[in-house]
Amino acid sequence: MNAEHKDRPQKQPKKGVYLLPNTLTLCGMFCGFFAILSSINGNYVYAAWAIIAATIFDGLDGWIARLTNTSTRFGVELDSLSDLVAFGVAPAVMMYKWTLMPFGRLGWGASFLFVACGALRLARFNVQTGSPGSKAFKGIPIPAAATILCSVVIFYYGYDFHTGPPARHIFYPVFTIVLSLLMVSTLRFHGLKEIDFREKKPFSVLIVFVLILFVFLIHPSSAVFIFAMVYLVWGIIENAFLFIAKMKMKRLEHHQTGAGTDENN
Which listed residue, of 41, 128, 234, 259, carries a Cα 20 to 30 Å from 98's Cα? Predict the structure, then answer.
């Protein structure tokens, strides 16, 4: 039996890639490429919406890969490259052409910092994928950071009296730099991956999704801006409360340790 087993040809793993999730990933990359071209041509609203469309494809490809059990190492690497184009380079070019160019070195430095921090964020995420722990993100996800920048552009042009790029204001490079640093921070931010759509949810959750859709249909530019800012501010406030609670816990432990030492003496 051993001889027959040795003579039997070994079954080789199938070569190839899964078409559906990787196609969605490439669609997201195309949206990023289109956003770069639109920014160069001065169509900043088209660029912003293209990046937001890329976030939809980015969510779909991962969700479908997990749902159909077609997640591969190739798909993970392709997804990271697509994310760097769509959520790193494209928003940086958009912001530079839109409002950072008049700042000179500060402007292109802030743009490059966003790309660099986005790349570092993606590399850290890939290394930590599969490690046990909380499902929350460490640092703001690069799609969320890109969406926040896009929401500012979309909100700015959401009203008819805004026809050209904004006036030179220090807010824009500072805001870009802050978002860049938040990507490589250790602050905790939440994401849709924490929600398991295969499990039953309360009826109220469905109502919330319907209300969100309603707000988007009424005024998309304001809705994108409001939800993006709520996500950013909520994350900062939550981490501030976590930091305060951690400091109180340390003080309590230190106080209990000190009291225990005094009793032993």
Answer: 234
